[in-house]
Amino acid sequence: MSISITDFQAQPDSGPQTQQIQSAIDSLEGRGGRVVIPSGVWYSGTVWLRSGVELHFEPGAVLKGTNHPDDYPFWDSTVDGKAVSRRVGPRAFVRAYDCENVSVTGLGMIDGDGGCGGQIEGRYGAEGHPQNLQFVHCRNVTVRDIRLRNSGSWMQVYHACDSVRIDGVSVWNHPGHHTNDGMDIDGSSNVKIFNCDIDSHDDALVFKSTGPSPCRNILVQNCHMRSNCHGIKFGTESVGGFENIRISNCMVSRSANPSPIPGFPEGRPVITGVALECVDGGRMKNIHVNGLTADGVFTPVFIKFGERLDRRLEEETPPRGCVEDITIQNLQGRSVGPHACSITGYPGYPVRRVRLSNLDLWLEGGVQDDSEVMQDVPENSTAYPEVNMFTKKTDYKLPAHGFFLRHVVGLKCENIVLHLDAEDIRPPYIQDDVRELTIKDCTSQGKDW
Length: 449
Description:
Blueprint: E1 2-4, H1 18-27, E2 33-37, E3 40-44, E4 47-48, E5 53-57, E6 61-65, E7 92-97, E8 100-106, E9 109-111, E10 131-136, E11 139-144, E12 147-149, E13 156-159, E14 162-167, E15 170-173, E16 183-186, E17 189-194, E18 197-200, E19 205-209, E20 215-221, E21 224-227, E22 230-238, E23 242-254, E24 270-278, E25 283-305, E26 322-335, E27 341-344, E28 351-365, E29 403-422, E30 429-440, E31 443-444, E32 447-448
Parallel strand pairs: 1-2, 2-5, 3-6, 4-7, 5-8, 6-9, 7-10, 8-11, 9-12, 10-13, 11-14, 12-15, 13-16, 14-17, 15-18, 16-19, 17-20, 18-21, 19-22, 20-23, 21-23, 22-24, 23-25, 24-25, 25-26, 25-27, 26-28, 27-29, 28-29, 29-30, 29-31
Antiparallel strand pairs: 31-32
């Protein structure tokens, strides 16, 4: 069954059509079918999807958020004890909760218009601004071909969902806030992300586990992530962990709307190509990255196992978890910063079994004086994980120009080539408390490591 929102007296280029759009969706509850958004601009506040309903956008259709906070009612995301994460924003533009067989499709656009432009205040801060798409505890979710623009916070959130397919989605998220991620997969399983193009002020593609559910069985292929922050990031929250995730044939590059992130120099807007951060408990295991191009990043690879143990929920501190069985191969990286890549655990809790193979990295280099190098690198195992966490956000550099390795067991480095744009006095790698290290066919400036 297919119905149009115009069947319920929705009018384009008029005032909020929230009630009319919601009535169209609700009319298919229990029956299922397609709700069509025709060509035109349709203003709305929060709408709720229902099981079995497809919200379909015809070419030229724009669902545009209003600029009135009251049009996005506060929702307690811990209702019934199911959505157990503060990171599931209390306000959303298009939301589905406890639904199955639900989808958003078509060649139109969902434009959050900046989520009320910062008018919403309170203890949630920017996280209280409406998220454009929010799926919570849903099964069999499809989001295909849609363009997503200017959310008030994270662009699209999939929290504790199962069986999700995101294909051909285009994201532009630059309304001027500091929480404008492109895509957040939070504690969801059996997820496929294909052919997406993301440009965001904050992290582009993020895997989080803010509650007990892990991110598990996820496939990412043929996506382009543009960002002023991180390209591909695991964390920071890792309560339930990350398992069995494969990323292939993807690219990370600078945003088309460059704007520096606090703590990082002007002109160096992409912090990492891929960041694997597990610092709040949870197991990070069986992560495979193959065929990644990272262009113009501050650091191509960052792997951190820590003990921040930050809680987004009121519950006991979790066990520390693990980081193990990580593979990064066939990576082309061009760094615009002198920081080394790093793989670090903390005393008594090493990162285990990492394989780096076929990495071709162009690095800035240029360190010529020992006074620029941090000789005694602090652990900072409880700190927020970031590439400059060891140097305390100063101008000091790590003591290696390629890789800083500490508290690692079972690391294999094969066919890694480091190119330096400028001569550097630091060695290609530094190891501290590293066991079972294998280095084969690795060179820097044409010389063996």
